[in-house]
Amino acid sequence: MKIDQFPEDIRPYLIPEPYGQMAYRCVGCKSEFNIDHLIYTCPTCGNVLLLHDKNTQHLTDIGGKTWRRIFDYRRMLNHNALKGIFRYYEFIAPVIPIDQIIYLGEAHTPLVEANTRLKKDLGIDFYFKNDGLNPSASFKDRGMACALSYIHYLANKEKLNNILAICASTGDTSASAALYASYLGDFLKSAVLLPKGKVTPQQLSQPLGSGAKVLEIPGVFDDCMKVVESLSENYNVALLNSKNSWRILGQESFSFEIAQDFDYEVGDKVIVVPIGNAGNITAVMSGFLKFFTIGIIDMLPKIIGVQSEHADPVYRYYLEGDPDKRSFSPVTVRQSVAQAAMIGNPVSMPRVIELAAEYNHTAGEKRIFFVQVTEQQIMDSMIVANRNGNIACTQGGESLAGFQKAIDSGYVRPKEIGVLDSTAHILKFSVFQDMYFNNGFDPAFHVKPIPELKNAPILLKPENLKKYPEPGKPLHEEEMKLFIREMTAEIASILDLEMK
């Protein structure tokens, strides 16, 4: 639709202009810093930061009902910059001019309702939110679209050239960072640090294909993160991990989309997200809090954070019921199929602690829960999900396993509706599916395939056939007729087909 076709009272809001003032705010000492430079930790106390809009009164004055109409009408607007995460421009980064926004097709991923069989198995209604349908095939594109839009804006404003963007990754962050950096290639190059042997071949191919400098380091993600933090502290590089607060802002769009897709009625929803570096659950909490504060939603949904028993520092922290007695301790991770969540010392843990407390306080009751699942449950759940029409990755399997655990633990009521985050596309993790089907897991994973979930191709070589077609050597006449007849009979027998 064109602007003149929208209601007159909505037209002034549809294409926003930059306004207001944003600042970095430390989650520890609460100091604030301007956004003229990229900073990742508080210069005063060293804690992590969140970005804060200092002009929220403007949002409040417009009112929740009007914001609903603005977002719903923007959905029909043919404006590239506002098609992705920046449909919610005023709630993400309202200082970035819209002509500096980078849009590669990210966001507004589908909510796919679980089929009747899956819902019956769990005894509850639920959906998968397929974030694997983002451009680089993972949810990381939400944060990267915001972070790179800000860098684009800053580079134009400050006349910056030859910027190097860098990140540590378990696979998805590197693919996303390299993709978005390649789009801005004139002044921006990218490098990624990966733990050697801990990234699937499909994930490794992505940053290579986007032209990034790929550096492999012995160890796990936490080791790569320490190195990349050292680089960002000592050299002029743009860090693109979730320590970068602009990444968190972009990932808040996940919450905004869920609210809009359910017509802003989310009080009966249960959002299930896997936890790795804890940036995603930080963003999900922050996003819903923003919409609730302005009155766009009238209740906060429950949020379930899921961790594998092989990488569970957040879960362990919240095992202690008394907040005054909690003490965070990093864990040594073990081999995990949920590679994106294989992080023992999450960068965003201080953000989680602050926002979870605020979320529960604002809701007036406990609405944030954490559960732990086994590697076996993750793999079984991934296979089951995909056997029922989904495209869930191992982290999507972790969400399904976590949802079942939350139901069994009494955190979910029968009439509530689950929304499960499938963070990436199954094709990025097909190596684990192959290992499951072929019983090829190293004992360190603690995964054994359930026989009824295994699958494998069947080679057809009927006994009566002596010759088969080959490339460049086709069969002819009677030999081809025999080939077709014998193959047809063999397939009919295997599939138990009846003659017409």
Mind summarizing the main beta sheet? Answer: 6 strands, mixed
The proportion of residues in beta strands is 5-15%
CATH architect. name of the largest domain:
3-Layer(aba) Sandwich
Poorly predicted sequence stretches spanning 5 or more consecutive residues: none
CATH topology of the largest domain: Rossmann fold
Distance between the termini: 53 Å
Radius of gyration based on Cα positions: 25 Å
Summarize the structure.
The protein has 500 residues and is an alpha/beta fold. The chain has three domains: 111-136 and 263-453, Rossmann fold (3-Layer(aba) Sandwich); 139-251, Rossmann fold, CATH 3.40.50; 458-500, no CATH class.
Can you put this structure into words, describing what you see?
With 500 residues, the protein is an alpha/beta fold. The protein folds into three domains: 111-136 and 263-453, Rossmann fold (3-Layer(aba) Sandwich); 139-251, Rossmann fold; 458-500, no CATH class. Helix content is 39%, strand content 13%. The protein is built from 18 helices and 13 strands. Strands 4-5-13-10-11-12 form a six-stranded mixed beta sheet, sandwiched between helices. The chain starts with 10 loop residues before the first helix and ends in a 6-residue tail after the last helix. The model has no long low-confidence stretch (mean pLDDT 96).
Task: Set down the secondary structure blueprint.
Elements: H1 11-14, E1 22-26, E2 32-34, E3 49-53, H2 56-62, H3 64-74, H4 89-92, E4 111-113, H5 116-122, E5 126-130, H6 140-158, E6 163-168, H7 172-183, E7 188-195, H8 201-209, E8 213-217, H9 221-234, E9 238-239, H10 245-251, H11 253-261, E10 269-274, H12 279-294, E11 302-308, H13 313-317, H14 349-363, E12 368-373, H15 375-387, H16 394-408, E13 417-422, H17 430-437, H18 477-494
Parallel strand pairs: 5-13, 6-7, 6-9, 7-8, 10-11, 10-13, 11-12
Antiparallel strand pairs: 1-2, 1-3, 4-5
Helix pairs in contact: 6-7, 6-10, 7-8, 10-12, 11-12, 12-14, 15-16
